[in-house]
Amino acid sequence: MLSLLALRHVIETAFLPTRCICTVDHSNNLMIQLINAQTQQEELTVTGIDPKDLTSSRAIAELVAQVREELRLRSQRQDKPWRHVKR
Fold this sequence. Notes:
By secondary structure, this protein is α+β, with helices and mostly antiparallel strands. It has helices at 4-14, 57-76; strands spanning 19-24, 30-35, 42-49, 83-86.
């Protein structure tokens, strides 16, 4: 299993060029914030990600794909404010 620091780095770089901030909360769950590089506005926040579920590259890739899909769906509904998603 990757350290939390390494896991955060992998997740943050997976979303480039979108700015991604991956943090660890008080209960050791991850939170992913995606920020529009042009407007600096938060586009999507995903909370409650248990790092114990991210023990393989496949699991990490699936998480990234799910978040990307949510972001894509969100961009299709541009008239609505950003959503806070609990995983």
